[in-house]
Write a structure and sequence with these properties.
Elements (H helix, E strand, L loop, with lengths): L9 H7 L12 E2 L2 H9 L8 E5 L5 H8 L5 E5 L5 H10 L4 E5 L7 H5 L4 E6 L2 H12 L8 E9 H8 L9 H9 E9 L4 E2 L6 E8 L8 H13 L5 H4 L5 H7 L13 H10 L1
Parallel strand pairs: 2-3, 2-5, 3-4, 5-6
Antiparallel strand pairs: 1-8, 6-9, 7-9
Helix pairs in contact: 2-3, 8-12, 9-12
The structure holds S-adenosylmethionine (SAM).
Catalytic activity: adenosine(1518)/adenosine(1519) in 16S rRNA + 4 S-adenosyl-L-methionine = N(6)-dimethyladenosine(1518)/N(6)-dimethyladenosine(1519) in 16S rRNA + 4 S-adenosyl-L-homocysteine + 4 H(+)
Function: Specifically dimethylates two adjacent adenosines (A1518 and A1519) in the loop of a conserved hairpin near the 3'-end of 16S rRNA in the 30S particle. May play a critical role in biogenesis of 30S subunits.
Subcellular location: Cytoplasm
Length: about 280
């Protein structure tokens, strides 16, 4: 037992519950409670919104969120093997941890929180991380039910989320994230921090929704960015040919010879509104 919280060490929890990490579920666990504490503190204060954790696994980050003062954590876990381990944490913090045994891709956040604000904090499974982020960024209701997202991604994905125009990583994900949120990388986490270690470095990214993103129809913005970045080395008059090409670009004052990666988020919004 650790003196700090009276729960067994995470290695013992993994052993006791037979939680051998499964690659198919993106299971790379964090067993260092100093690190999980540091991640949880990025989302402070934790007592004014429900904290939603996706993929708690054996519960290292869950414990940290509770220790850092979360009034209520809702933890969504797809792997049924983890539920009993999480119930031990719930028993230790009566009324503060709700465990949802489900696939996070199918969860309606607003329904889950009864429309109350949530903060999402997660060491995401890499195989579904980008899709989850896209789901949260494309919420029909805006501002969305989430107040902040504090998420672990592979560093390369984190760089795509926060990339600025004119940089190599700038693409569809950057435009969508930049349109609807302010996103930044907080710190990197080395592979050796995980059990088992993944092949690449990870990064913690934080996104805060913009109150009033520039008005644009999401489906049109997605269509324009998909076409533009689908042929990112080509001039826009070529890559956007099927959407109006040169005429479309000149109608909104964008030089048809430019390439996708040079356009700001506002310029993509202008194009989407003209399509
Ligand atoms: N939070 C734990 C930690 O930091 O040690 C575990 C993180 S591990 C990278 C990802 C977790 O997400 C695993 O526990 C895995 O079972 C779970 N998971 C994978 N796919 C999921 C899904 N679609 N919905 C909910 N949980 C999922």
């Amino acid at each position: 037992m650790t003196a700090a919280e009276g729960l067994p060490p995470l290695r013992a929890v993994i052993e006791a519950h037979g939680l051998a990490p499964k690659k198919s579920l993106g299971q790379n666990f964090l067993l260092d409670l100093n690190l999980t504490g540091r991640i949880a503190r990025q989302a402070l204060p934790l007592d004014r919104a429900t904290v939603v954790e996706v993929g708690p696994g054996p519960g290292g980050l869950t414990r940290a969120l509770l220790a850092e003062g979360a009034k209520k954590v809702v933890a969504i876990e797809k792997d049924p093997r983890c539920i009993a381990a999480l119930e031990e944490i719930a028993a230790h913090h009566p009324g503060r941890l709700e465990i949802v045994s489900a696939d996070a891709l199918t969860i309606d956040l607003a329904a889950l929180s009864g429309g109350q604000p949530v903060k999402i904090v997660a060491n995401l499974p890499y195989n579904v991380g980008t899709q989850l982020l896209l789901n949260w960024l494309t919420s029909t209701a805006w501002p969305p039910v989430w107040e902040s997202l504090t998420l672990m991604f592979q560093k390369e994905v984190a760089e795509r989320i926060v990339a600025a125009p004119g940089t190599d990583h700038y693409g569809r994900l950057s435009v969508l994230a930049g349109w609807r949120s302010r996103a930044k990388i907080l710190f990197d986490v080395s592979p050796s921090a995980f059990t088992p270690p993944p092949k690449v470095t990870s990064s913690i990214v934080q996104l805060v929704p913009r109150e009033s993103p520039e008005p644009a129809a999401l489906d049109k913005l997605e269509k324009v960015t998909a076409a533009a970045f689908g042929q990112r080395r080509k001039m826009l008059r070529q890559s956007l040919k099927s959407l109006g090409g040169e005429a479309l670009l000149t109608s909104v004052g964008i030089d048809p010879q430019r390439r996708a990666e040079t356009l700001s988020v506002s310029e993509f919004v202008r194009l989407a509104n003209a399509v």
